[in-house]
Specification:
By secondary structure, the protein is an alpha+beta fold. It has a domain at 3-81. The protein has helices at 3-11, 19-28, 65-71, and strands at 29-34, 40-44, 50-53. The protein is elongated. 8% of the residues are buried. The mean pLDDT is 82.
């Protein structure tokens, strides 16, 4: 383990894991699997607690749907042990883009150059006393 990794574990909680998480994982953790983003999933021996060690910044939206269900005890079978085939209408997982250039900005938002569409006449503004 490098000095940089050690310092990040000691002084930050948003990059990978902390020293306490590393120790708890070493003592009681059983590795269950890894997703396509490099996040590693663990469960306590006996299966009561489940946790993830993120690959990079700790962002809960970077957990794919199959692993999300396993993490929240909706299923006892982790995705690697399940013969799940995605439906044709399912899209690949995209992490939360809020705060980035890829964030959704609707028409009329102050962060987009487009103007809000004009009201077409099917709406009457409310005025007090009317």
């Amino acid at each position: 383990m490098s000095i940089k990794t050690t310092l990040l574990e000691i002084f930050t909680w948003w990059n990978g894991q902390t020293v306490g998480t590393r120790f708890f994982t070493w003592r009681k953790g059983e590795r269950v699997g890894e997703d396509q983003f490099g996040n590693i999933y663990y469960q306590e021996r006996g299966g009561k607690r489940r946790w993830v060690i993120y690959n990079g910044e700790a962002e809960a939206s970077s957990i794919p749907p199959g692993w999300h269900g396993w993490m929240h005890h909706r299923t006892d079978v982790p995705p690697p042990k399940e013969a799940y085939v995605a439906h044709a209408w399912e899209q690949p997982h995209v992490p939360n883009m809020t705060g980035t250039a890829g964030a959704y900005r609707p028409h009329g938002s102050i962060l987009t150059p487009e103007a809000r569409p004009r009201v077409t006449g099917d709406y009457d503004a409310w005025t007090p006393g009317s």
